[in-house]
Specification:
The longest helix is centred in the middle third of the chain and has 43 residues, at 334-376. This protein has 19 helices and 15 strands. Helix 15 (577-596) runs antiparallel to helix 16 (603-630). The two termini are 63 Å apart. The protein has helices spanning 2-25, 80-85, 118-129, 188-202, 207-213, 215-233, 334-376, 383-391, 408-433, 444-455, 457-472, 478-504, 515-541, 568-575, 577-596, 603-630, 637-645, 647-661, 669-709, and strands at 35-36, 40-45, 90-97, 100-106, 133-134, 136-138, 141-142, 160-161, 163-166, 169-172, 175-185, 238-240, 245-246, 261-272, 309-316. It is found in: Endosome membrane; Golgi apparatus membrane. It is a multi-pass membrane protein.
Amino acid sequence: MQGLDGKRLLGATMVLALLRAICAYYVPGTYPTEFKVGEVLEVHASSLTSFDTELPFDYYSVPFCKPAEGVKRIANTANPGTILEGIRIENSPYNLTMKIKQSGRLACPKGSYGPLTDKEVKMLKRLIDQHYRVNLILDNLPVTVYDLLNENNEFLRPGFEVGYKVGDKYYINNHLVFNILVYQTHGEYTAARKQYIKSVSVDGLDRHHRRMLQTSAEKAGASVARAHRRIAQEDDIYEFDDGYYYDELVDMAALGLDPAYYMVVGFEVSPCSIERKAGADVEVIVCGVDGDAHITPQEIKEGADIVYTYDVFWQDSKIKWASRWDAYLRMPGGKVHWFSIINSLLVVLVMATIVAMILIRTVRRDLAKYESLMVDGGSSSGGGGGDSRDEAGWKLVAGDVFRAPTNSAMLAVQVGTGVQILATSLVTMVLATLGFLSPAARGALLTAGMLFFVLLAGLSGFIAVYIWGLLERSYNSWQAVCARVALYYPGINLLIFTILNLVIVHTGSTGAVPLGMYFSLGCAWFLVATPLTFVGGMIAVRVPMLDWPVKTNQIPRHIPPSPLSANPTLLFLAAGVLPFGTMFIELYFAMTSLWLGYFYYLFGFVLLIGGLTCVINAEISVLCTYVQLCAEDYSWWWRSFYRGASVSLYIGLYALGFLVSSLSSLSGFIPVFIYLCYMSLFVLAFYYAMGAVGFGASFWFVYSIFKAVKAD
């Protein structure tokens, strides 16, 4: 009975821990949120971004109005991914009330911002010249100038321009017309959440756990109450969509109106520039309507007082909450994308089948010929003997094929690093494909990637020590190999990242990583990843060492000059062509989304194309290793790694071509330097990952064929 009670207690503890983890991971907007009519919704402000500079800036570093209660960071939106991406989400002066149309609302608590100083004027003009965009967020949905209901839009970009330029004059978009798409519900999600909280509390959770479950609801209620009081104090008139007017927020059910629930499914904006006089009554002006040529735009000049205003409109939509991100995830050339992916899939499958058939038939023929020679006792002579020698050239290096290469420790370190990168990419892409790392969770993809890379450090230590032990036939000084694994690749990344950070820190961009984040990364590196690397090495030492199927000669065999078909440079260049062709189309769309501001969510295709690339890379590496061995060249260890990694050369060349062709708008040294640094990290990761694939496939092939021969 005591054992049974202990199991029950352990199970209850695990359930409580799981509930706490779920609550701690809660991301606003990833769970359906329902709002009553008259409930206040707070708009959040994210960092300003530009596709011409790739340098994000804090929203309030620009001459924009600040909320009356002060600027506050939205704490539950911060994670390592958002910090590294330079995303800073804060409260904004824009507050909306569900299903209440508002016109001519003042955003600034004091009525206007100004007068503008010369420094602020220069900043605004620079931001307009560099096409910076303002990014606002409502219920975790980004604002956009595109029509979300127009299915003919092939793509969508979040945000809106800071302003525009006409001739030599600059104008700021100081008036925003919000159009909120809402979907009517009946409060089923709210009721389900309340019932869940009630059931958990009834099951005996202590006060602390209940408080954690109710934290998000309490914060939301407090913010709504504050916003209600703030709006009620302004004595403004609100117009409901049904035509009724009220001078304060009231209980809808008490008036006999339908207290329906609504969910936000779209956030659109139409920005425009209107010159208004500070302190004067706000005239209701509809932007973008023909005949409004009398509207004078707000020019950016020193001493100007800018009056920021906004209108709010609500539009019922048939878009359900689960589909509200569909319009945001559209990409340019969507149909071409799907066709190209299917075409690449078919080509890769055909080519992979052909290569596999060639290898299988050729090796089987060689093995059959060798067996016949063994049965005949080598009785063949003359031209037949020479022909057999040419046909079975790879068996002539049996005594040297497993000879340890030079600098075997570095080879083991690079293979271990590549396996770690492959495992991290696989786990991250699987979770993204299953929907756990959606765009609604900003920074989640990068955060998950870093987390899994740290946790899988033990795998790199295991592989590196085991490979090094196989090559040297000893595990002596395996600690040095683990230390090199722990410091090598993370050290390169940290070096590049530090140089990049030093370059952009003086710009004032939020892309500069704060010292606190550096400290956190260092702690994760030295206190988590490094010990795990040594743990993996300790496990590898205890694994029985693989025996070679053939003995290694004491004296190395002379390597004859390679024919043209087995030229190392030619094989290196040829090995990466087909794998690069496999991923070329998907690479284009991924880089377009990454650098041109589109959302990317086709992680299933990335996983599929990545798997196909690994398959074709492995087969090409095996084929090239076979050709090399047939030329009686047994130094295949490093070359198999290089040939597998050769696809990274083509990715690097493509990155340079993409910079020239598609990113010609990048201006200045810093934006180009940012691009080159991040693409260098990407190419370096591909180098180690694909090199590990090539090495692993070649190792399996060489071991298998010589084991089949069973030569002495």
